[in-house]
TrEMBL record, chain B:
Similarity remark: Belongs to the GINS2/PSF2 family.
Native source species: Zootermopsis nevadensis
Pfam families the UniProt entry points to: PSF2_N, Sld5
Subcellular location: Nucleus
Family matches, as InterPro entries: GINS_A, GINS_bundle-like_dom_sf, GINS_Psf2, PSF2_N
Major location (coarse): nucleus
CDD domains the UniProt entry points to: GINS_A_psf2, GINS_B_Psf2
GO biological process, one term: DNA replication
Keyword annotations: DNA replication, Nucleus
Domain DNA replication complex GINS protein PSF2 N-terminal span(s) in chain numbering: 2-61
GO cellular component: CMG complex; GINS complex
Superkingdom per UniProt: Eukaryota
Name assigned to this protein: Probable DNA replication complex GINS protein PSF2
Length: 924, 175
């Protein structure tokens, strides 16, 4: 480890050898006699250049093995011009040593500095000393007055690796941090400027003399304390009460100190301006790049090439069956893009006189016009764009959020509470993130809101709330998962999810997946179903290059549990993550976007995990914990399983306790799934919204949409209230439906079916009206997946296949009056039971009749026998209509009875009442 | 086995592709493949990858080892060692040939990779030949060679046992 000292004039080089580890810093004596150096071996040495010997050495640098590993550089600094003193960082202080004797004369420290000082630097005038620490603090002292003139902290707290004064002597300090950023601090010297400097100049002597005179300072070790006490005395002197003191020196000092302090406070009052992060498009790379991704999402990739001779936009679709690739000349110099399966939206900023412009390319228009564009009002500039199903949104610098339909009709204009950071869209949801005022020091304060844009109505799903972020981080990505849950990624690499219960939770630490510290993941999308994040690993950067084409990686979501590697934590993590996934999938199922198989699979794995957790707790002897885990179990079946397990292990006491839990679970279940009420705020909020929305929407002419509203209200009321009040909700629904009917007399068949809350019918409505689907999925309607499984069965539409079969046969039978037929079909078993019994007797009675006539005869008998029943007329008419095909009827009745068995008894009651209701309505 | 058979076996190796279509999981006797999600990588056998690539239905992602740096390193090792070194893939030659043949534009530095692969192949074949030569000359009764790939074994197999047979016959006659 050598230090080379070259004479610039003679180009003669002297080599200083002796350090046993890499050199961290050198300082050349202004008189060219000495060199001071610090090294990883823990020493700061002073060398003579002439005989290349170490004159003095201090052990004051933390020992380490490489330059890269050195936290504290221990970089010394000579007093300029005279070289009379040498400043050396030493732990939490900077010590001043006298030339030749190398005795410590002074030391500087700062109360708020917690880390070791790393670099010292004398100002060009020699009156000030700057020091910085490994924690990013920068302090400036007045050497003569021993006062701290200024102290600041790097706003990110990064380690500072270089510090230099402006040679012009204007009190400016430049520094650079380990992240490669260069910064300057102005006015480090309290503009004690001209008038003061003369005083300082004068006093240089006196203070120096004083130091020399002070015998204590010549001691080596224990002077640290003394210095502090000296400072204390000075501080005391500086108090106003001492102003009357006649001591000239102290008065001067006090006066000066006071002056300095007031200036410091003046500086401090200028609050640290935290730099607000500029707006960005999620999943895009920075605008200044020549080749950049404008967006890369689950639909495709939009690349922008903006070299001097070419400016174009390339669109590539992942699924080529969606649309062929596009190549667009970028005349308007678009900088923002967003892509959905319907549209490509491009937007440009204001460019010399030309207004900011939004261009929308329609991917599947059928009228020949492939694109439309709109100019924003003069002076208004697009900052962020997003698109979803049937809409697009442009956030502007006037804090407006302008909405358009995909075909170019203008919609609502929303005022955002702050400057936009980014917007993201998914189906009918819109996520906006904006600056929400000043954050805590170093932090940004971001807010967000989720809008729903269903069916021509814009409304906020979550109020404007602050966004959760890692301290001192910026937002790097925001968007929706494939399932429509808002997610964010911040610069610390944490992916957060906005859960269905309206709170943010960290779901993945992407940085933990990176090998290198400077590697980052560029997020493209998140799938809750697969429990992973689609992203691109960028080695040494935040953004991927366009060529070579980066490979997509999938990293799994993982809750940041404590002691993440233990078996217990692994299972706990899995349990809670699956719970989240399950609630999402449950919602998806309700919207008809996901299959129940997935949900069942999730349910199963939740049960599996919770049983494993239970077993683990049992095995480790935590019985109290085991019983607690039983409370988490989704159903009493699992608890019973746990009970069996416990008794098999011979833990009878535990088994008893578990049995208690099991009985409680059963009770709870029977008490009517009260957990519905503590359901998330979405449902209730939304339910009320829907109700209020429902009435004005009567004027809408689309009978489809109004009828789906009816369904929705039904559905919501069902969720919001619970099973016991179901009949009420049905009534409500029925009346509402009537209103719809009054408006639109089309398709009575469908609305009839809905009013009766026939699960089959409901699913038909979904299938038939895609518009209704879009509405429905706005519902954050949700239930806890556990416990009320039975309830969910009630509400779940049965598998569509089955329904279809039934529908077709029914309509084939009697398309005009299908509800009535259905009613009969349900009642038929009674007749059939009767008919089966009486068949032989009838055959004997009328031996000459054919089978159909026989059955007709039987029907007459049957009618007579159940005269008292109110349902008779219906049974009669439809039964007659069905007699020609008794085979089908029979099969169907079997099916029906099978279905009845599946349903819990409560359902039968409600369904029969609804049937009655339907009938009553039909009559009216 | 002739080269075609070796190639057939090699075609069962898995490779990552990025499909440009969506398709359900497919259930094959050798195992399930998919689901195919447009734009997201999926592991498929080479035979399927080449087929899809020829129909412009996917983009092939080069295997980890199909990278100039990595292969240069392998080549360096191979040239340094007296023995055969372990190859990054059991069917490196066939895989390289097939993937580079069908999707040269998907794989960065395809030409360089081809050259390096050929170099490695030549080096190993010459090693094999010289060791066979040495084996026969010393008249040894058995020899052990590690890390030979299927293709290499089958390049020498038609000749060597036959030649040894002949030698044996001749020796018997001499005695």
């Amino acid at each position: 480890m050598e230090i080379h000292v070259s004479n610039v004039g003679t180009s003669k080089t002297t080599v200083l050898t002796g350090h046993k580890a890499p050199i961290l810093g050198v300082a050349l004596d202004p008189k060219d006699k000495y060199v001071a150096s610090s090294s990883c071996d823990g020493t700061v040495r002073v060398w003579t250049i002439d005989d290349t010997q170490t004159v003095h050495s201090w052990n004051c640098v933390p020992v380490c093995n490489a330059f890269l590993a050195a936290k504290c550089l221990g970089r010394p600094s000579w007093q300029p011009k005279t070289g009379h003193y040498l400043a050396v960082p030493h732990g939490k202080e900077i010590r001043i040593y006298e030339r030749e004797t190398w005795n410590k004369v002074l030391s500087f420290s700062h109360d708020q500095v917690k880390q070791d000082f790393s670099i010292s630097a004398y100002s060009p005038c020699g009156n000030y000393l700057a020091g910085c620490t490994s924690g990013g603090d920068i302090c400036v002292w007045n050497v003569n007055l021993h006062t701290c003139v200024m102290s600041t902290r790097h706003d990110r707290g990064y380690r500072i690796c270089g510090l230099a004064w402006n040679p012009g002597g204007n009190g400016e300090i430049a520094y650079c941090d380990v992240m490669g950023q260069l910064g300057t601090i102005e006015d480090c010297i309290p503009s004690a400027s001209q008038d003061n400097s003369s005083v300082t100049q004068e006093k240089t002597m006196t203070v120096d003399d004083m130091i020399h005179l002070n015998p204590i300072d010549d001691d080596d070790d224990d002077d640290n304390e003394n210095v502090i006490s000296l400072d204390k005395i000075k501080a005391e002197l500086s108090q106003p009460s001492f102003f009357g003191d006649n001591d000239k020196l102290s008065h001067a000092v006090a006066d000066d100190d006071d002056d300095v302090e007031s200036k410091i406070s003046g500086v401090a009052r200028i609050a640290p301006v935290c730099d607000l992060q500029p707006p960005f498009q999620p999943s895009s790379t920075p605008v200044h790049l020549q080749h950049r991704f404008m967006v890369w999402n689950s639909v495709g990739i939009v690349r922008c090439y903006s070299t001097e001779d070419e400016n174009s936009v390339d669109v590539e679709f992942h699924d080529t069956s969606l649309h062929h690739a596009l190549h667009i000349n970028n005349f308007f110099k678009h900088t923002m893009a967003t892509l959905t399966d319907e549209v490509l939206v491009l937007a440009c900023e204001i460019q010399d006189e030309a207004p900011s412009k939004v261009v929308c390319v329609l991917l599947n228009s059928w009228d020949g016009s492939k694109e439309w564009s709109v100019d924003l009002p003069e002076g208004e500039e697009a900052l962020a764009i997003a698109a979803g199903k049937g809409w697009l949104a442009v956030a502007t610098d006037t804090r407006n959020l302008r909405l358009f339909t995909v075909a170019g009709t203008q919609r609502e204009v929303v005022s955002l509470p702050g400057p936009v950071v980014c917007v993201a869209g998914h189906r009918n949801r819109l996520l906006t993130v904006f600056h929400n005022g000043m954050g805590l020091p170093g932090d940004q304060s971001l807010g967000f809101a989720v809008f729903s844009l269903g069916s021509g109505q814009l409304q906020v799903l979550t109020a404007f709330q602050p966004l959760s972020m890692t301290p001192k981080s910026t937002l790097k990505w925001a968007g929706f998962s494939d399932e429509g849950t808002p997610f964010t990624l911040d610069s610390a690499g944490i992916i957060r999810m906005f859960s269905r219960k309206s709170f943010w939770l960290p779901l993945c630490d992407t940085q933990a997946h990176c090998k290198g510290k400077s590697d980052h993941y560029f997020v493209l999308g998140i799938s809750e179903k697969c429990q992973n994040v689609r992203c691109v690993l960028c080695k040494g950067s935040y953004y991927p290059p366009t060529t070579p084409r980066p490979a997509v990686a999938e990293i799994s979501l993982k809750l940041p549990m404590c002691e993440a590697t233990t078996e217990k934590s692994v299972m706990e993590e899995r349990f809670w993550r699956l719970q989240l996934a399950c609630s999402t999938t449950g919602d998806m199922c309700k919207m008809g976007l996901d299959s129940f198989n997935d949900k069942d699979a999730l349910d199963r794995s939740i049960k599996e995990t919770v049983i494993k957790l239970f077993a683990l707790a049992c095995r480790s002897g935590f019985e109290y914990r085991a019983v607690e885990i039983c409370d988490l179990m989704p159903s009493h079946h699992v608890v019973q399983l746990a009970m069996k397990y416990a008794s098999k292990l011979g833990k009878m006491n535990l088994a008893d306790k578990v049995a208690e839990v099991a009985t409680r679970k059963v009770d709870e279940r029977e008490q009517g799934f009260q957990n519905d009420q503590v359901d998330n705020i979405y449902t209730l909020r939304y339910a009320s919204d829907m109700e209020s929305r429902f009435l004005p929407s009567r004027s809408m002419s689309l009978e489809e949409s109004s009828s789906t509203y009816g369904t929705k209200v039904n559905h919501l009321l069902e969720n919001a209230t619970n099973a016991s009040t179901e009949s009420e909700s049905l009534l409500l629904a029925a009346t509402k439906q009537k209103k719809c009917e009054a408006q639109t007399e089309i398709k009575p068949l469908m609305s009839l079916g809905q009013k009766r809350l026939n699960p089959f019918k409901k699913s038909v409505a979904r299938v038939e009206s895609s518009r209704g689907l879009a509405n429905l999925d706005a519902l954050y309607a949700q239930q806890k997946s556990d416990k009320n499984k039975c309830n969910s069965i009630l509400e779940q539409p049965p598998p569509p296949q089955k329904t279809k079969i039934k529908q077709t046969t029914l309509s084939a039978l009697k398309p005009a009056d299908s509800p009535a037929v259905r009613t009969t079909a349900k009642k038929l078993p009674t007749f059939f039971e009767w008919y089966e019994k009486e068949k032989d007797a009838l055959a004997e009675e009328f031996p000459d009749l054919s089978a159909s006539e026989l059955s007709r005869q039987g029907m007459k008998r049957f009618k007579g026998s159940i005269q008292s029943d109110t349902q008779v007329p219906v049974t009669n008419s439809s039964a007659e209509s069905q007699t020609p095909v008794p085979e089908t009827k029979k099969r169907k009745s079997e099916e029906e009875s099978g279905l009845h068995e599946e349903n819990p008894p409560k359902k039968t009651i409600t369904s029969s009442s609804s049937k009655l209701m339907a009938f009553a309505f039909k009559k009216s | 086995m002739d080269p075609a058979e070796v190639e057939f076996l090699a075609e069962n190796q898995m490779v990552s592709i990025v499909p440009n279509f969506n398709f359900e999981r497919i259930y094959l006797i050798s195992g399930d493949i998919g689901p195919f999600r447009a734009g997201l990588p999926v592991q498929v056998p080479i035979w399927m990858a080449t087929n899809l690539r020829q129909r412009q239905k996917c983009r092939i992602i080069a295997p980890d080892w199909m990278d100039t740096e990595r292969l240069e390193q392998v080549k360096e090792e191979e040239s340094q060692s007296r023995y055969f070194t372990k190859m990054p893939s059991e069917h490196y030659m066939v895989e390289g040939h097939m993937l580079l043949g069908v999707a040269a534009e998907d794989i960065p530095h395809a030409d360089e990779i081809r050259t390096i692969l050929k170099d490695i192949w030549d080096m190993r074949m010459s090693k094999l030949r010289s060791s066979v030569d040495a084996f026969i000359k010393t008249g040894g009764s058995h020899a052990k060679l590690d890390h030979l790939t299927a293709m290499e074994i089958n390049s020498i197999r038609p000749l060597l046992p036959h030649a040894l047979d002949e030698l044996y016959k001749l020796q018997k006659v001499v005695r």
